[in-house]
Write a structure and sequence with these properties.
nucleic acid binding, about 375 residues, RNA-DNA hybrid ribonuclease activity, alpha/beta, 6-stranded mixed β-sheet, single chain, 3 domains, RNaseH-like_sf, Reverse transcriptase zinc-binding domain-containing protein
């Protein structure tokens, strides 16, 4: 329960007696904080409340004084962390050099420093009453929980084969996380931090939007994220070679190639999946579009598109298959670029635009035929 009405100091003072309203203060904050408030003398001058920056003699805030306060009052305040300064130095150097998005690094850093608005921090400031983890519903949701011993997180790490070393009982949970992360290899580091960030993402979906939590969807999200990072890294680090235009490759005679894709609408949580089947001559021998509701993200949309491709193949009695898509999710297949998957992507857009969901019995749109023809011609013209 949020209490936004208490915004100024004067609201905590009994104006008739010029003393603290002790009952109100005890209601709003814990006993230790209340005792600190009561130790503050109340001015008898009757001046209006004003904001004062305590780290500057003038009471005015400046960037310079803010920076100085961070270095003196915050970074040097934790004697516990200073005892393990080298561990944290290695941790932060490794974290910020990791090949992942900056928002994930920032989330991990703020979580390690207990600056995330989880239920534990909100309850401590009396902004909410619920304090248990909304995912596992077992323990207090705090930074230790979100970084280490949430049963959902531990299960995710087990399913993703994250190596968790053993620690003495005296080692705190955040320091355990720091040591485990620093000792892991590059891919394990990516999985560890992406899984923690994904847990927070799905937790917020549950708390703020009421979205159902699915372990399988979360695992697919993490695997797809890690895979795409690896693909991007390999493309950037590959040795220089002459630029070769990527083209669609027809299957062998007697084999059907299925290209699938999905068009995802984030705001509506809708996804239109498409499956395009072609034989060794490049001729379209089947096509389908399908509508999915309540889709949480693009990775889930791609996974469902892959599943629809296999269902479509079974229904059409295709027995020898090659399956291609342009993003890896929960199911393994041949991952290709969007350029090679252009015909399937065009079919997904056409299905969404025309509100056609099912088999295209009368033939696919001209735009899809053109994309498929361009694929075939590019193959025929290859050098």
């Amino acid at each position: 329960m949020i209490r936004p009405n208490w915004t100024t100091i004067i609201q905590l003072i009994n104006t008739e007696t010029s003393t603290w309203d002790r009952d109100l203060v005890y209601y709003l904050v814990d006993e230790s904080t209340a005792d600190r408030i009561f130790a503050i003398p109340i001015s008898g001058s009757g001046q209006k409340d004003r904001l004062v920056w305590k780290h500057e003699g003038s009471g005015e805030y400046s960037v310079k004084s803010g920076y100085r306060a961070l270095n003196t009052d915050y970074l040097r305040d934790s004697t516990y962390r200073s005892s393990f300064g080298e561990d944290y130095k290695v941790f932060y150097n490794t974290l910020w050099s990791l090949n992942i998005l900056g928002k994930i690094k920032i989330h991990i850093s703020t979580l390690v420093n207990n600056l995330v608005p989880h239920f534990g921090n909100l309850a401590r400031r009396t902004f909410c009453a619920a304090v248990s983890c909304p995912l596992c519903k077992e323990e207090l949701e705090d930074s230790d929980h979100l970084l280490w011993y949430c049963s959902i997180l531990q299960r995710v790490w087990a399913l993703l084969t994250v190596q968790i070393p053993s620690f003495e009982d005296s080692v705190g949970h955040i320091l355990r996380f720091v040591k485990m992360f620093s000792a892991a290899d590059e891919q394990q580091k990516q999985i560890i931090v992406i899984s923690i960030w994904s847990l927070w993402f799905h937790r917020n979906k549950l708390v703020h939007e009421g979205a159902n939590f699915s372990m399988q969807e979360m695992l697919g999200f993490i695997r797809g994220y890690v895979h795409n990072i690896c693909l991007n890294f390999m493309s950037l680090c590959s040795s220089p070679r002459p630029l070769i235009k990527e083209i669609w490759r027809p299957p062998d005679p007697g084999v059907i190639k299925l290209n699938f894709d999905a068009s995802f609408l984030k705001e509506e949580k809708l996804a239109v999946t498409a499956v395009l089947a072609r034989n060794f001559t490049g001729k379209i021998v089947g096509a389908e579009t399908y509508l999915f509701n309540d889709v949480t993200d693009a990775f889930v949309a791609e996974a469902r598109a892959c599943k629809r491709a296999l269902i479509f193949a079974s229904r059409m009695y295709f027995r020898r298959l090659v399956v291609e898509g342009d993003s890896l999710t929960e199911i393994s297949y041949l991952a290709v670029t969007r350029l090679i998957n252009e015909a399937a992507y065009t079919l997904a857009l056409e299905g969404r635009r025309r509100n056609i969901y099912g088999d295209w019995l009368t033939g696919v749109p001209e735009s899809v035929q053109l994309a498929a023809l361009q694929d075939r011609l590019a193959w025929d013209r290859r050098s």
